[in-house]
Write a structure and sequence with these properties.
With 256 residues, the protein is α/β, with parallel strands linked by helices. Helix content is 38%, strand content 17%. It is built from 8 helices and 11 strands. The strands form 3 sheets. A 7-stranded mixed sheet has the order 1-9-8-5-4-2-3, with helices on both faces. The longest helix is centred in the last third of the chain and has 28 residues.
Length: 256
């Protein structure tokens, strides 16, 4: 009996050549490949800025920290999602408030307003199985109650909502490059997409020990840096992302 894996990563000569190019460059952390990958991801997503991190979990943790998330805060999340959706906020002392999902497996927006309290600060809709929620309605709820929104796009890179790519629709988008995702770098990794250039500058410093210059550390940060080999691979994968997604749609149609 043949065992069918959860996912099978795309590897061709172009992927191998990219990895070797980065390997031979002599620069392995936050170099030219990372800079180019961030720029290309921003263009593909339709935003001004993209910040790479060592994982979805940690780059979102840094974002929450810059948002001021802390003890006593409540953040609305879907009850049916991967654990990392709420893991970073828990580490900061905040409380996830769960709402059920609808028949498309994304957050049931009919339940969101009833879950909002004076302690609520944000909403994280997760686009499970690549399916965006009704973003316009989420934004209307958020505006009414003065909340921020983060799109959890870990399973939805390249998906669109009313012609716009997910990750560009609200305050921030968060993506994962884990091997089972739509866009993988053949390793761990993640990124934040946004049009907020001010928070991006702080986020880039925070992921790299609070560093402004080589020996200039403005505040205590973390090591959440990305590497050149995975960035070079990710740049190749990004070229094929739309084709990967179309293939997933064909497979889904066959199952249906």
């Amino acid at each position: 009996m043949e065992r069918l894996p959860l996912s099978k990563c795309f590897v061709n000569a172009e992927v191998e050549d990219a990895a070797l190019r980065a390997l031979r460059s002599g620069q392995y952390i936050l170099g030219k490949e990372c800079q180019a990958f961030e720029a290309e991801l921003a263009v593909h997503t339709g935003v001004q800025e993209c910040v790479l991190g060592s994982s979805w979990t940690l780059i979102v943790y840094l974002l929450h920290q810059l948002q001021g998330v802390g003890p006593g805060d409540e953040i609305i999340v879907p009850s049916h999602t991967a654990f990392p959706t709420m893991e970073p906020l828990i580490h900061l002392g905040a409380r996830p408030v769960f709402v059920d999902v609808d028949d498309t497996y994304v957050m049931d927006l009919d339940q969101v307003e009833a879950a909002i309290t004076p302690r609520t600060v944000g909403i994280i809709p997760a686009y499970l199985y690549g399916h965006p929620t009704d973003v316009e309605r989420v934004l209307a709820i958020a505006a009414k109650h003065h909340l921020w929104v983060i799109e959890d796009c870990a399973q939805a890179q390249g998906a669109k909502y009313k012609g716009k790519t997910v990750g560009s629709l609200v305050d921030f988008g968060a993506f994962s490059f884990f091997p089972s995702k739509n866009l993988t770098v053949l390793g761990d990794g993640g990124c934040i997409t946004t049009n907020d250039s001010q928070i991006v500058d702080r986020l880039r410093m925070l992921r790299n020990h609070g560093r402004q210059g080589k020996y200039d550390h403005e505040f205590p940060g973390y090591n959440v840096r990305f590497n050149e080999i995975n960035a070079a691979i990710g740049r190749v994968m990004l070229k094929h992302l739309d084709a990967f997604n179309e293939n997933r749609r064909r497979i889904a149609a066959r199952y249906t």
